[in-house]
Recover the amino acids of this structure.
């Protein structure tokens, strides 16, 4: 029962009593039979009837004001299911290598983890978002220093203002780097958001060159181009949440950015094999030459600013819900994921519905809102649909209800059959109750992997976030689907349109995220051209749109504006029409200096 019903009931009851009083004044004889007066209802049975009608009318009014969620939820559920689904808790986790590890340990994306100790409502389960390569390597030292620069001579870094120096060492002295098949290493930027954001911006806007060396005085360092540093988290297979291929991935990037921006604070350092091929001992030094320096960062950067073996994790896991016995007495059924832990499990999505008869026949029902209606119907002729509603009293979150209908949406429940549902679930708000710090919570793999000594959380789990779907929220979500990159980059109203769409995805809705969105000061766009290689070495010209987004200066540096710009670069690129591109530039408001201009992008691919 939702708390929203009570105000409607009170208003309807007051309205009916007022009408009853007017009726008694106009028709006293008839009202006397019902023992009605202008001020009271003397007959308790009539009073109960009035209350019953008030209750029924309140439900109708509530449904009308609810903006028909069955329609909007079904539409969004087919096109963009993430818009109406909760955002489960997520965090950054680190896999630590065993001291005797002598080779790489690979953990694929989707590796399942669970808490070693249980809360009152059970353990929490997670799965990884990125594949992780755990190496027998540790970060021995890290520093950011300005001029005079102490680094190997590098003709490609003339004019460097600072250098980021990372010292890597194998876990045991008898293990050398040239024995490892190492070509790429993934780093996570840990620390406060201000420090991590500023360092991320510095790396991707100011890197001149990179050198792999044995030390400062190495006469033959291996020098590589700046593009050896590569961003992480933007590709279709690097999402926190499962995402259908038919849906626009740009919206997923926005959802994940506002839910957990740390998901993007990774970078890959490639081309390490060039150094290993020349021979290497148990230590390698990495020098990243930068065109500018930040004195505040120089005092802050240390080994604690970087971490190896990390990946985002999300509180999602597959399971089978409690079976549902189908009868003629109900047209919809509450889906109960786990009868033993009603407070510990909530449904994220329905993957499959299987109907089983008493004779042992099994058929898979298709979702009603799908593109599968051209398939031959199963022997029951039933399709399924679900509705998400606020959870029962005493529970946080939502419950889902299953309905079975025919192809014309008439109720079609096969009697005495049983429905089994394969679902994707999460642990409601339990992850927020996990202790964080001093080595807790302890995590373990559901299927252990040799070579892993410990699994530790680097960041505390985020709270479970849920869309605000009340009142006009659903229709706002539907209406924004009409937007395209032209409306978002309109010089006059583009900034307002962009801020509005970002607010829809800001489920945290706190002071920091609101300030970041409001820091978008303006958007300008113009037609542009860029070279588009045809794959055969001959370049042609392609038309597109040059976009300039200006931020308030306070949002740049440690404010997260650059990271939002990196997300918008992919977002606008995915909006580009066929045979066109977008090229994003970000700058501080009122300044001519460009902070970053990304390469022209058409869809998922940059034009090189």
């Amino acid at each position: 029962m939702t708390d929203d019903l009570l105000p409607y009931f009170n208003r309807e009851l007051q309205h009916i009593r007022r009408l009853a009083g007017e009726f008694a004044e106009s028709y006293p004889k008839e009202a006397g039979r019902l023992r009605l007066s202008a001020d009271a209802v003397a007959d308790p049975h009539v009073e109960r009837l009035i209350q019953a009608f008030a209750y029924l009318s309140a439900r109708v009014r509530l449904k009308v004001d609810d903006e028909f969620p069955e329609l909007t939820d079904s539409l969004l559920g087919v096109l963009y299911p993430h818009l109406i689904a909760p955002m489960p808790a997520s965090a950054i986790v680190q896999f630590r290598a065993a001291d005797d590890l002598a080779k790489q340990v690979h953990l694929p994306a989707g590796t399942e983890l669970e808490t070693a100790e249980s809360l009152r409502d059970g353990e929490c389960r997670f799965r990884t978002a990125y594949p992780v390569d755990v190496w027998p390597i540790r970060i021995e030292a890290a520093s950011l220093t300005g001029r005079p620069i102490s680094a190997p001579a590098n003709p490609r870094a003339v004019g460097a203002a600072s250098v980021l120096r990372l010292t890597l060492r194998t876990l045991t002295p008898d293990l050398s780097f040239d024995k490892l098949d190492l070509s790429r290493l993934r780093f996570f930027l840990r620390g406060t958001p201000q420090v991590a954001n500023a360092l991320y911006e510095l790396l991707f806007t100011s890197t001149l060159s990179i050198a792999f060396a044995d030390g400062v005085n190495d006469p033959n360092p291996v020098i590589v181009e700046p593009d050896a540093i590569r961003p992480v988290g933007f590709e279709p297979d690097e999402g926190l949440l499962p995402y259908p291929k038919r849906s626009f991935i740009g919206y997923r990037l926005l959802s994940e950015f506002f839910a957990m921006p740390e998901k993007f604070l990774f970078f890959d350092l490639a081309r390490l094999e060039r150094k290993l091929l020349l021979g290497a001992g148990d230590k390698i030094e990495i020098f990243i030459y930068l065109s500018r320096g930040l004195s505040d960062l120089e005092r802050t950067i240390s080994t604690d600013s970087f971490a190896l073996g990390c990946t985002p994790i999300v509180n999602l896991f597959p399971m089978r819900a409690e079976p549902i016995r189908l009868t003629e007495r109900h047209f919809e059924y509450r889906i109960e994921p786990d009868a033993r832990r009603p407070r510990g499990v909530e449904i994220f999505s329905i993957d499959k519905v299987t109907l089983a008869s008493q004779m042992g026949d099994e058929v898979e029902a298709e979702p009603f809102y799908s593109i599968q209606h051209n398939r031959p119907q199963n022997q029951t002729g039933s399709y399924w649909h679900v509705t998400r509603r606020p959870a029962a009293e005493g529970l946080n979150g939502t419950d889902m209800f299953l309905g079975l209908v025919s192809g014309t949406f008439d109720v079609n429940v096969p009697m005495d059959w049983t429905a089994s549902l394969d679902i994707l679930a999460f642990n409601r708000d339990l992850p927020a109750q996990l202790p964080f710090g001093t080595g807790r919570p302890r995590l373990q793999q559901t299927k252990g992997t040799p070579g892993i000594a410990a699994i530790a959380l680097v960041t505390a789990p985020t709270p479970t976030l849920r869309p605000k779907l009340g009142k006009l929220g659903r229709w706002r979500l539907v209406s924004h689907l009409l937007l395209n990159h032209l409306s978002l980059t309109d010089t006059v109203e583009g900034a307002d349109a962009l801020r509005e769409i970002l607010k829809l995805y800001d489920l945290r809705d706190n002071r920091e995220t609101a300030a970041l969105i409001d820091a978008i000061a303006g958007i300008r766009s113009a037609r542009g051209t860029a070279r588009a290689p045809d794959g055969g070495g001959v370049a042609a010209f392609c038309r597109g749109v040059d976009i300039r987004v200006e931020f308030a200066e306070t949002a740049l540096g440690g404010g997260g504006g650059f990271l939002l710009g990196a997300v918008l670069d992919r977002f606008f690129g995915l909006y580009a029409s066929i045979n066109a591109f977008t090229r994003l530039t970000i700058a501080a408001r009122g300044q001519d200096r460009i902070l970053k201009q990304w390469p022209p992008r058409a869809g998922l691919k940059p034009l090189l």
About this structure: The mean pLDDT is 86. The two ends are 57 Å apart (CA to CA). Residues 5-65 form one domain. Residues 5-26 form the longest helix (22 residues).
